[in-house]
Amino acid sequence: MRIKKLIALFFAFFAITGASAQAKKYNIHTVAFYNFENLFDTINGPNNDEEWLPKGIQNWTSAKYKQKLHNLSRVLSEIGTGENPNNSPTLIGGCEIENRGVLEDLVKEPLLINKDYGIIHFDSPDKRGIDVALLYQKKHFKPTSYKNIPLLIYRSQEGKDDKKDKDEATDDKAETGKDDRVYTRDQLLVTGFLDGEEVNIIVNHWPSRSGGEKKSAPFREAAGRLNRTIMDSIYKINPNAKIITMGDLNDGSYNKSVKEGIGAKRKKEEVKPFGVYNPFEEMFYKGNATLFYRDAGDIFDQIMVSETLIQKDFSSFRYWKAGIYNKPYMITKSGQYKGYPLRHSSNEIGYSDHFPVYIYLIKEVK
């Protein structure tokens, strides 16, 4: 009889605590990153955009450009809507963007215009003319400072050539100037207030694997170190700073650029003060992917958060969970690339060769 009473008390306790937990309410924001894959307009600009013109190799017409904008806007309007009543992400990092003009066209799309996105964008020295940027919902995020931080890398830093990697898939050819510098994307640092709380965001598109993974690895390792330097400079000003770094890293969560350069950890319990948690490392080892090459998947698109965002006190915004957005309409249905992200081809305007990634930030409402 005594055991039965103890069991009854046990279930009663969890019924009460469960009801208490259900009564809690949270503010929630989605933070996303998406490689827009060749978001070019049809205007001949000062960058290397000849391929993406009406008379270029891609035969990139106004109709195709408009379809591309519509496709991207559909994805962006839906990311995170499953568990976020605000719908669409509050913050969106993007890459493979030709200029500010294409972003202005994108945020005016019918599916996005009511979200009132602001734009933070700088032209980078990338010879192909592609940049990174941040879109933000003006009613929730108020930027206070932003700057582009150059990644200075040189051909003399290259590793040894690996013949097995010579044909590594990439649409992103690094170019070298007369000074031996490899001209690539800057890293974008944005600081602002998310519903009144200061947050720092770094948006990345690290150097490609052009020429082979091993040969180009030192470039991405330099990018990881630059990322870490930016974080450390933020911590010198505010040891309690909240930092989110995201992007297409052209490396996996297990690579040296991420593990040593940034110092990212796979498990929350491994993260020390000033450290970084990478939820996408665990997702990779569970078989998830944001892109594919030769039937092998990987997660090059990642969002990482500072230790200050994984603390258990939800009286301010904290990391909740992460995901990869890969709905059926974004996936190739048949043929050689069945199961891959549905990208642009000669007979179809797709979405991107990457799936977007996202995280949720939540804060308890008292």
Task: Describe the model.
The protein has 366 residues and is an alpha+beta fold. It has a single domain, classed as Deoxyribonuclease I, Chain A, CATH 3.60.10.10. 23% of the residues lie in helices and 29% in strands. It contains six helices and 18 strands. It has helices spanning 2-23, 62-78, 100-107, 213-237, 256-262, 279-285, and strands spanning 25-39, 91-97, 117-121, 131-137, 141-149, 153-154, 175-176, 181-183, 187-194, 197-205, 243-248, 264-265, 276-277, 291-293, 296-298, 301-306, 318-324, 357-365. The strands form four sheets. The protein has a seven-stranded mixed sheet. A six-stranded mixed sheet has the order 3-4-2-1-18-17. Strands 6-8-7 form a three-stranded antiparallel sheet, with no helix packed on it. The longest helix has 25 residues, at 213-237. It is globular. It starts with a helix and ends with a strand. This is Endonuclease/exonuclease/phosphatase family protein. Pfam families: Exo_endo_phos_3. InterPro entries: Endo/exonu/phosph_ase_sf, Endo/exonuclease/phosphatase.
